[in-house]
Design goal:
The structure holds 2 protein chains of 2 kinds. By secondary structure, chain A is mostly beta strands. Helices cover about 0% and strands about 60% of the residues of chain A. In chain A, strands 2, 4, 5, 9, 10 and 11 form a 6-stranded mixed sheet that branches. The radius of gyration of chain B is 13 Å and the shape is globular. In chain B, strand 4 and strand 5 form a beta hairpin. By secondary structure, chain B is mainly β.
Chain lengths: ~110, ~120
C-alpha cells in the first residue's frame, strides 16, 4: 500500500522567512497530492493540491512542487506570518488519502 | 461548496457501550466515504473505505467487528464503535468523495471527539 513520509516533524521560523516541508510517497500509481493545514481540534483544511500531470502550482504565498520520478513533493510557504502556525499534512491519493505524519510549523514574530 | 456534516461533534460514553457517528454529504452524492482516526498529536490514520451499497474495506489492523460501517445511501455513512473502551478515545473524522470526481479534493466533516470513560 501507499506510504507517505513527511519531514521535518517540527519547523520554527521567524516571521517573513520561508518554510519548506517535504514529503515522499511509495506508490507510483498515486496521482493526486493535497496539502492540509490543521488547527488544534479542528478538521483539516485543504490549502493547495497538485496532480501528477503538473510539476508546480502556486497560490499567493503557497506553492507546491512535484517530482514524480523521484516520488517526492514539497510545500513552500513564503513570507510566513504568525497565523501560518499550525500542523501541516501532506497526503497522497490512491482513492483514499494517505497522510504523512505532519509538520508542526511555528512562526514567531 | 461541498459540505460534509458529521454528528455528534463530541460524545462521552461509558466503557462497554456503543457509539454511532453519522457522516452526511449535504449537497452532493458520495459514492465513497472514508473514515479516519486521529490520536492527539498524531496524523490521520485511514480506518476504512465505505462504499454505498456494499461492504466497507478495512485497513490492516482495524477490527471490522468493532468498527461497524454502514453506507446505506449516497449521502450517509455511519460508523459505530461497539463495546467502546478507553483506548478507543480519539478524534474520528469522515470524508467524502463526490460521485464521479476522481482524484479531487476530499471533503471532511468537522470530526467527532470520542471519550470513553
Amino acid at each position: 500500500g501507499e506510504n507517505v513520509e513527511q519531514h521535518p516533524s517540527t519547523l520554527s521560523v521567524q516571521e517573513g522567512d520561508s518554510a519548506v516541508i517535504k514529503c515522499t510517497y511509495s506508490d507510483s500509481a498515486s496521482n493526486y497530492f493535497p496539502w492540509y493545514k490543521q488547527e488544534l481540534g479542528k478538521r483539516p483544511q485543504l490549502i493547495i493540491d497538485i496532480r501528477s500531470n503538473v510539476g508546480e502550482k502556486k497560490d499567493q504565498r503557497i506553492a507546491v512542487t512535484l517530482n514524480k520520478t523521484a516520488k517526492h513533493f514539497s510545500l513552500h510557504i513564503t513570507e510566513t506570518q504568525p497565523e501560518d502556525s499550525a500542523v501541516y499534512f501532506c497526503a497522497a491519493s490512491r482513492g483514499a488519502l494517505i497522510f504523512g505524519k505532519g509538520t508542526t510549523l511555528s512562526v514567531s514574530s | 461548496g461541498a459540505v460534509v456534516s458529521q454528528h455528534p461533534s463530541w460524545v462521552i460514553c461509558k466503557s462497554g457501550t456503543s457509539v454511532k457517528i453519522e457522516c452526511r454529504s449535504l449537497d452532493f452524492q458520495a459514492t465513497t466515504m472514508f473514515w479516519y482516526r486521529q490520536f492527539p498529536k498524531q496524523s490521520l490514520m485511514l480506518m476504512a473505505t465505505s462504499n454505498e451499497g456494499s461492504k466497507a474495506t478495512y485497513e490492516q489492523g482495524v477490527e471490522k467487528d468493532k468498527f461497524l460501517i454502514n453506507h446505506a445511501s449516497l449521502t450517509l455513512s455511519t460508523l459505530t464503535v461497539t463495546s467502546a473502551h478507553p483506548e478507543d478515545s480519539s478524534f474520528y473524522i469522515c470524508s467524502a468523495a463526490r460521485q464521479g470526481a476522481k482524484d479531487s479534493p476530499l471533503h471532511f466533516g468537522n470530526g467527532t471527539r470520542l471519550t470513553v470513560t
